Amino acid sequence: MKQRLIFEWKTFLTVKNIILIVLLSATFFLSFVSLFFSNFNNNESLIPVLEEDIRVNSKGLEEQKEEARNAKDEVWLKSLENTEKINEISSQQITALRREDWSEFYTLEQKRAKLLFAEGGANTGDGLEYLKQKDPKRYLASKKDLEQRKYMVDKKIPITEDLAMPKSSWGALSIDLATFSSFILIMLFAILFCDFLTNNFEKSTIYLYSFTVKKKRSILSFKLIVQFLVAVVVSSVAFPLMFFIKGMIAGFGVSQVPVAIGNNVDNLSFISALQLLLMYIPYYFIVLLFLIILFLFLGSYLQKTLLSLGIFLLSYYGFTLIKDMDFMKMISPFVPYSYLDTFGVITQTDLYFPKHSFVIGMIYLLLLSGILYALTARRMNKLEI
């Protein structure tokens, strides 16, 4: 068995695959771009904005209050008093930012948002309602961001950075994990896996194997083991390395950072960043296992690399273009491609995901992997070479 694994490992390490492994490893470090090309001191960029708000809101405020009193217009006077309170809170936020006290800043931000909403000056509600009609998916993401901040303030979870642009390891974990399960990463893994079996057919190296029934099956199992080990090792080395290096540069933050779960804005739940990571890891490896078996299945029947890869790329990319359309809402939950975005499945970024999409996705992909593996093994045993 050891010799067979070494043999398959050597055949896997082609120039193309080595380049792809390097590219895959590099994508895990993309989050460093935000550290070097953005301002570390986000508080310094927020202070001028708040100062300008205070300046604009204060202009002629006392004169207007006097006019409102003389006119005995209680509604106008109440509005001006709210504006005065907003200015006071903004001033306190500036003080908090200069102390780099983000917890205090966001606590004050909640109070400021309530006054702005009551005043109607921020048009936050109207803006979100417009977004809800125009782009429900972005509306869901925006509501999750707002609810996350409110949750952290209400639960008194330490806030160590700007939540709009987190840079710490735990703070930016959601952004990083979303990147690692993105369309681009899936495509790179697909290109890595697509030709491991088909190359044997195209180059006739399949004849190097001894074709007893048992050994025909072993061709499949050894190729599966080698590819899965490569995927696991690349992910298991690159991500922790990125996490700790990023932590040393920008800080680790706190693992209690909440992540909003659900696609119903009236019924969102929250898990910590640590819980998200613990859910993400096993599901991510199941996705990789499914991709490997899918390409072994396509390779055993089609025996052509470009054909296998082309079918996957066209079908997967095509699905991503139409999955959010109205006519697909009832169909998308049954399409395996829906469950390849690990972060999206866990947090339910798509509106069509059922309530328990994480568990459903794991069971569905494992079941399909088992079926495809059985069909591939059956095909390999029947090959007449």
UniProtKB/TrEMBL annotation:
Superkingdom field: Bacteria
Coiled coil stretches, renumbered: 51-100
Record keywords, A-Z: Coiled coil, Membrane, Transmembrane, Transmembrane helix
Transmembrane in keyword set: yes
Transmembrane segments: 12-37, 177-198, 219-245, 277-298, 305-322, 358-376
Name listed for the protein in its UniProt record: ABC-2 type transport system permease protein
Organism expressing this protein natively: Pilibacter termitis
